[in-house]
Every structure is written in C-alpha cells, then in structure tokens.
Amino acid sequence: MSEAAAAPVHAVTRSPHAGAGEVSPWFIAFVVAMTTFMEVLDISIANVSLRHIAGDLSAGQDESTWVLTSYLVTNAIVLPISGWFAYVVGRRTFYLWCVVVFTVSSLLCGLAPTLPMLILFRTLQGIGGGGLQPISQAILSDSFPPAKRGMAFAVYGITTVLAPAIGPTLGGWITDNFSWRWIFFINVPVGVIAFALSRRLVWDPPHLVQAQQDMRARGFHIDYLGFGLLALGFGCLQVVLDKGQQDDWFESAFIIRMAVVSAVCLFLLPFWELRQRDPMMDLRLLLQRNFLISNLLMFVLGFVLMGSTLLLPLFVQTLLGYSATQAGLVLSPGGVAILFVMPIVGALVTRVDVRALISFGLLIGALALFLFGRIDLAVDYQTVALIRVVQALGLAFLFIPINTAAFAGIPLLKSSSASAIINLSRNLGGSFGIALISSQLVQQQQRHQTYLVAHVGDAVTRPGGSVAETARSLMAQGVPALEAQQQALAHLYAMVQRQASMLSYIDAFHALALLFLLLVPACLLLRRPAPPKGPLAAH
C-alpha cells in the first residue's frame, strides 16, 4: 500500500498544497450543505410556479409539467451512477463539475425565452443536481472522525429533510413577489460561492487517489450496456411516477410503454451489473444485510416524508381555506424542530443502539400520522402545527441512524457508491410516495362520495330533512322556491364532497402510519454497527 493510502487521516480537510494547513470539517459541512440544500429545494420549488410559467411562456398547463418531469428524470439517471463517476474522474472533479453545471443551467432556466428551452435547461440542471446529493454526503461522511460521523449525517439530514418542506412555500412567495424566474436565479450566487470555496477546500482522500492510480494501471472498461439499462430503467420509471396520475395511469398507452421499458431494464440490470468488474452501479453493496435493510428503511422514509409533505399543505388549502403562505407556516414549526433535534440525534448515535433509535423514530412518526388521521374540518392551526412537530421529531430519529447503520460496514473506497444507492432509495421512495398518495386521494374520495350519496336520501326526500330546511331558510330570505331547492341541493352536495375528501385524507394518513409500524420488526434484522476502527478519510 502506498504511503498516501496508509497515512493516518483526521477529522479535518487538508489541501495537498504545501503549507496549506487544516480546515475544520464544520466549514466543509457548511459549504457542501449549501449546494445540497439548493438542489433538493429545486425538486419542489417549481411546483407552485407552473401556472405562472405556462402563462408567461404561452404554454398549456399539461405541457408545463414537463418542467418538473425533465428535471426528475435526468436527476434519477445521474444519481445512481454518481459513485462510478466519482471513482473514474475523481470525487472532487466530479463534484465541482456538478456545481458548475447546476449553477449555469439554473441561470439559463431563469433566462429561458420559451418552454422547450426551459425544459432543455431543466434537463441540464437535473444532470448537474443528480450528483450533488450523494457526493455531498460522501464528502461529509469522510470529513468527520468516526466518533462524530453522526453529526455529518445530521448536517446532511437537515438539508434533505428541510428543503422539501419549505420549497413550495418559498417558491410561491418568490413567484408572487418577484417572478418565477427568480426561483432559478437564487441558485446562481449560492453556486458561485460554493464552487469558489469547494475548489479550495475539497480534495480527494488518499485511498481514492490510490484507487484511481491502480485503475489506470490495470486498464478500465466502460460499462455501456449497464449505463443504458440504468438510464432507461430509472428514467422511464420516473416518467411513469410523475405523469401517471395525470394520464390516468395504465389507461394511457404512453404510460404502459414507459412502464414496460422500465420493468424490463430494471429486471436485467442486476444480472448484468453483478458480472461487471467496473459496474455503473455497485449492486454488490446490497449483499450486505445492514446496507440492504437500511435502503428499505430509507425508501419508506422518503415515501412517508414526501407523501405527508404533499398531504398536509393540500389538506389545509383545499379543505380549510389556507393560503399557500399559511400552508407553509403549518410546515415551518416541524422544520424548526428538525434543526434542533437532528444534532442531538447525531450525538446519540455513538452512544445508543441505532436499532433502538430507528424503532423509536418509526413509532413516533406513526403516532403523529395516526393523530393526523383523527383531525376533522374544525381543526385549528395550532393542532395541525403541533402534530407536524411530533412527526418531525420522528423523522429526525430516522434519517441519521439509518445512514449510520448503512455505512457501518462499507469500505472507504465504496462510500461514494453507497451514498449514491441510498440517496436513490430515498428519492425513489419520495417519487412513489407522491404518485401513490395522489392516486389514492382521488380513488378514496370517489369511493367515500359514492357511499355518502347512498346514505343521504332522507336529507333529500324527507320533509323535515336538511335540504328542505335549507330551502325554507332561503325562501324566507326572498329566494324563489325552485332556485332555493336547487341551492339547497348544491349545498348538500358540497358538504358530501368535503366530507368525502376529508375521509380520503384520513385514509392516506392511516396508510402512512401503518407503513411505519410494519417496518419496526425490520429494525431487529439490523446488526448493531460496531464502533468504527481506524480513521476516516479526508478530502
């Protein structure tokens, strides 16, 4: 082993330039967290601006949704292969290029004169953003000593959990007060600062440098077929999840074709990748029990996080009449709770069995979701915000321990690949959560409405029923009899619709809660991570 690879490594970052000195890992954490936060934010920030984008660029509402889909598709393709790129071209080089592409494409998105140009630039933005999440996590993981690795995951967790929660609110505020173009322009100064600081502070660890040298010495094979299977598989899957509800799922020939292509490619992918010396996606890591179970847990965490983040603002806006800003204020207390609790959890993971922490997080999260399932149309702001805080506490106890368990047995050289896979699991979970919860809301509302309509006959036909009472009240106010009867029926139908919608939200919250409860036994399958031996890598 070379001296570089064998040299002791500390919890600080040292530049390879002579006399450069050491840099605190907390400074590194702040720098890489900036780019991760902006990238995760861009997944959700554009959602509320689609109507303004469509109007400004003379496009239809359905066409404008490709602004979201184009970003998510390329993001889903690049994310799982980011570990391969970090291994081939160097983690620092790949990270800096991702920052550049993300920043420049953000500027171009803000300047886009037409919808096709905006979709093109969003595609480029997704390519740059796809590598930022996993590489940032790998950099954070390696920058801290073993005893403080939980704090690294706390920093990363704050960015990835907080950004989706504030994205829609921030996007709405920027669009209402400035222009939809500024939701992209705000990335530019952050990207410029992050690039300048990262270029001076982030460096490849010695073990990764040595691995690259060894790779070049023995020759390298590019896995073209693996890339094709991966790109088509995850790209088409993301299209199905993002456009399925809009196109009525498998009633659409386009969705069927995308689903078939995705299923075939993802079925063949593991058979091919497991035979490759230099695979695009290192699926061998999933043969480790802790890493496999942690990915399952992270998938469900993404599912519940994004599913509940979709449900709550929709509920308070559609049924309680909240504005977009007020809906954001419902989520804000939970974000504040995460800011305070995650560092505490980061310190606990070195002292408490992660299986206990994960189980506790699942139970608290399930409790909060069951409490959401007990609210009604008379619920006030304080109650909803308080339950969201309880849910945020559960989420804080999940993200860090799951990552700690996942990385416990991963070799240093594989940290970028492991980060790519576990971030893919979380993102796919979020995409499945949004797609399936949206579909369930519509289906359950129709089912409940059919049931309620079948049981309101007395209200319509009985002389003393609510329709008759409402009609008499309207006639007393001077409304003609026929018009009063029609208004009374319309009022009853509106009540049925609201109640059916309320019941569909309750069903969705209960389903998410049961999903968390079903995962508690999976924690028992995890091996307790042994205390890390030896130092981690620096950059």
Q: What is the structure about, briefly put?
A:
The chain has about 550 residues and is an all-alpha fold.
What does this structure look like?
There is one protein chain. With 539 residues, the chain is mainly alpha-helical. It folds into 2 domains: 23-220 and 278-282 and 290-446 and 503-523, Growth Hormone, Chain: A (Up-down Bundle), CATH 1.20.1250; 221-277. Helices cover 76% and strands 1% of the residues. The protein contains 22 helices and 2 strands. Strands 1-2 form a two-stranded antiparallel sheet. Helix 2 (25-44) runs antiparallel to helix 8 (132-143). The longest helix is centred in the C-terminal third of the chain and has 43 residues, at 481-523.
Topology, element by element:
Layout: H1 3-6, E1 13-14, E2 22-23, H2 25-44, H3 50-56, H4 61-64, H5 66-89, H6 91-111, H7 115-130, H8 132-143, H9 149-177, H10 182-185, H11 187-201, H12 206-218, H13 224-243, H14 253-273, H15 289-318, H16 324-348, H17 354-372, H18 381-407, H19 415-453, H20 457-461, H21 466-476, H22 481-523
Helix pairs in contact: 2-8, 2-9, 2-11, 5-6, 5-7, 5-8, 5-13, 5-19, 6-7, 6-11, 8-9, 8-19, 9-16, 9-18, 13-14, 15-16, 15-18, 15-19, 15-22, 16-18, 17-18, 17-22, 19-22, 21-22
